[in-house]
């Protein structure tokens, strides 16, 4: 089965060892630079941060030319072409789980964090370190995108500082993978990540692309970014 067919049938797919060399080095360098900023010690710049336990450091690609070049380069154009007709950068962020106490992240759909109806978008998750069950690798629940094209009900968890879209017994498919691997999933796909119980941080990079701009109907302005890849 092709990656594109797998993505459509399950809502996600994985490419091991897809990003390497200068691109992986640039992402790691930018991640470490943002972690070292004073604001990161207070939880970073996102309302779902949990201090050093779980950092979401977002919307900073313009400060790192090599990261910006990667986001708009040939590799991302090839990845997004599998799911999008008119790919635009919608959002991007580094996700860092601190050592020993790195917080898990509950089952959710990324689209649940957009508070108005919108077309599904594509999340491209890149492991900057080997992602293991011990340090918080992703898990996904299979979802046929041709049949289940909706956002499920979510509730806000004050303790976890996160939205929760599923709390049932299905463990989904765990996706441990080596550094440089890409996991792609729809904004409709339920996914989670485990806690980091190891002695080292677990770093990842999440780039999200929409099919055309996602505009806030109350303002007419883009929800986040609306930068075309073409």
Automatic annotation (TrEMBL):
Keyword Transferase: no
Gene Ontology MF term list: 2-oxoglutarate-dependent dioxygenase activity; iron ion binding
Regions crossing the membrane: none
Entries under Pfam families matching the protein: PhyH (PF05721)
Top-rank taxon, per record: Bacteria
InterPro entries referenced in this protein's UniProt entry, alphabetically: Phytyl_CoA_dOase-like
Name by which UniProt lists this protein: Phytanoyl-CoA dioxygenase family protein
């Amino acid at each position: 089965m092709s990656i594109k067919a797998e993505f459509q049938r399950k809502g996600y797919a994985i490419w091991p060892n897809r990003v390497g060399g200068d691109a992986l080095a640039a992402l790691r360098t930018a991640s470490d630079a943002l972690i070292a900023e004073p604001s990161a010690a207070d939880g970073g710049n996102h309302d779902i941060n949990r201090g050093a336990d779980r950092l979401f450091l977002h919307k900073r690609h313009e400060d790192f030319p090599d990261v910006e070049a990667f986001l708009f380069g040939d590799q991302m154009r090839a990845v997004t072409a599998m799911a999008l007709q008119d790919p635009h950068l919608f959002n991007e962020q580094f996700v860092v789980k601190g050592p020993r106490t790195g917080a898990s992240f509950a089952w959710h759909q990324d689209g649940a964090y957009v508070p108005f109806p919108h077309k599904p978008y594509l999340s491209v998750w890149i492991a900057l370190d080997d992602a293991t069950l011990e340090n918080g690798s992703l898990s996904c629940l299979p979802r046929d995108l041709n049949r289940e094209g909706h956002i499920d009900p979510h509730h806000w968890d004050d303790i976890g500082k996160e939205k929760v879209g599923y709390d049932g017994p299905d463990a989904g498919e765990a996706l441990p993978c080596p550094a440089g691997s890409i996991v792609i999933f729809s904004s409709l796909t339920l996914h989670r990540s485990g806690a980091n119980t190891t002695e080292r941080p677990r770093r990842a990079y999440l780039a999200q692309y929409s099919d055309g701009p996602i505009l806030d109907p109350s303002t007419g302005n883009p929800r986040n970014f609306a930068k075309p890849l073409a």
